[in-house]
Amino acid sequence: MAHAHASVAVDIHLVSVEAASHYHAFALIHSLLATLIAGFAIALGFPHLPVRFAVSLEFAIGLVALACLQNSWLRRGLVPKAAMEKAALRHARLTYAHLKLKARHDRPLLLLYCAKFERHVEILAESRILEPVPEKTWLRIVEEFKPHMRDRREATAYAHLISHSVDALAPFFPVTGVAAESPAKPPHARRNWLWRRV
């Protein structure tokens, strides 16, 4: 990353996370659902059970489900794809906003964001970066990133992601000629799913 900063007049950040969210809300939702299903099953299958025992059994099943869903991989397996995409998009933008607060004022900001569990990669940048560099360039970079991640060659994938981004930026942002800072604007996005669309 130090080489990238020395090669182009852009503040480049690579952020790779295991997951964009802990999804704790889904553990609670599914444990409550398990409790309700257990209640219906007990009421229909064992109608003569004492009410206090039936409620206690239902409550115990709910606690067991909640305890099992503390396992992150089991919990994440119950998350819908739409919720995963929203979580990745939200976390990427929050990360960009956090970096923007600390970014250098003399260089535009570029965020290379990857959420591995969601299989999501996104490039967030200011308009002064995305205007000179065409969209097809970023899409090509993302497409070249996919096979390395599919093959679990993460170090190679990130190295290529950074180097190709630097190559795309170098003609427009040489180190000796930094453009004047433009007014802050919402980040533009270039995003694509990783493994699913291959």
Q: How does this model look, in words?
A:
The protein has 198 residues and is an alpha+beta fold. The protein folds into 2 domains: 2-21 and 81-193, Diaminopimelate Epimerase, Chain A, domain 1 (Roll); 24-76. It is 55% helix and 13% strand. The protein is built from 8 helices and 4 strands; from the N terminus they run αβααααββαααβ. The protein has a 4-stranded mixed beta sheet with strand order 1-2-3-4, sandwiched between helices. The longest helix has 22 residues, at 24-45. It is elongated.
Summary keywords:
198 residues, alpha+beta, Diaminopimelate Epimerase, Chain A, domain 1, 2 domains, four-stranded mixed beta sheet, 8 helices, 4 strands
Describe how the helices and strands are arranged.
Elements: H1 2-7, E1 11-17, H2 24-45, H3 51-68, H4 72-76, H5 81-102, E2 109-115, E3 120-125, H6 127-130, H7 135-150, H8 154-169, E4 188-193
Parallel strand pairs: 1-2
Antiparallel strand pairs: 2-3, 3-4
Task: Summarize, please.
With 198 residues, the chain is α+β, with helices and mostly antiparallel strands.
